[in-house]
Write a structure and sequence with these properties.
InterPro entries: EF-hand-dom_pair, EF_hand_dom, PIRC1/2
Pfam families: PIRC1_2
Helix content: 25-40%
Shape: elongated
Radius of gyration: 27 Å
Number of helices: 6
Largest sheet: 2 strands, antiparallel
Structural class: mainly alpha
CATH topology of the domain at 14-82: Recoverin, domain 1
Strand content: 5-15%
Strand order of the largest sheet: 1-2
GO biological process, one term: axoneme assembly
CATH architecture of the domain at 14-82: Orthogonal Bundle
Number of strands: 4
Protein name: EF-hand domain-containing protein
Keywords: Cell projection, Cytoplasm, Cytoskeleton
């Protein structure tokens, strides 16, 4: 089997992941030939890696294509070859829990500091700030966290409120629904002010 770690992070089973990959294969195969040529294969692998639902061993796919001197690949070949020569790419990481129920797995963005992306804004050399000087430095592996205690963001759904009759989702901003003790003023005339 291929690594199930990426599929568990994406929240789908192995069968669901390969179903999605099959649909993507059919989308890239615009001429409905049942196979992809090498140019289409490059685009397909790039999209699969972006989706990050299955692990792809590109070197093994290239090796198999060179061995068979093939100029095209079918979906079944891609599925068989993408998992590497031994049927898997990497071992599934062991997920351990501490006494508080926190997972020991670190998100992929923190595993390798070399792939960390940052958008550095170019500043005028006369007006640089110290914050920019600090922020322009790329993180090293030492800067990456070893443990991750982040949650899935489930608490943010408490702010989402669907109003009756509206299709859009609105954010429930805080409003004080406590006892009002101030005087209610009329917008029409002073005689209509409510005074308790």
């Amino acid at each position: 089997f291929c690594s199930r770690l990426d599929q568990e992070r994406a929240g789908m089973s192995q069968a669901e992941a390969w179903f999605v990959i099959n649909r993507l294969f059919k989308v890239i195969d615009k001429q409905k030939r049942g196979y992809l040529d090498l140019d289409q294969l490059v685009d397909f692998v790039a999209e699969v890696k972006k989706m990050d639902v299955v692990a792809v061993d590109e070197a093994h796919i290239v090796q198999r294509l060179q061995d068979s001197e093939a100029e095209q690949i079918t979906y079944e070949q891609f599925k068989d070859w993408s998992c590497g020569p031994d049927g898997y790419v990497d071992e599934v990481e062991k997920d351990t829990k501490d006494p508080f129920g926190n997972s020991s797995l670190v998100p992929k963005r923190f595993v390798d500091a070399e792939v960390f992306k940052s958008n550095v804004k170019v500043q005028h050399p006369c007006y640089t700030t110290t914050g920019h000087d600090i922020g322009i430095k790329r993180p090293s592996q030492v800067d990456m966290p070893v443990k991750w205690r982040g949650k899935e963001g489930v608490f943010t759904t408490d702010f989402v409120m669907s109003e009756p009759g509206k299709m859009a989702v609105t954010i429930n901003n805080y409003t004080n629904r406590g006892l009002r003790t101030n005087k209610t003023y009329s917008k029409v005339h002073r005689e209509f002010d409510i005074d308790f």
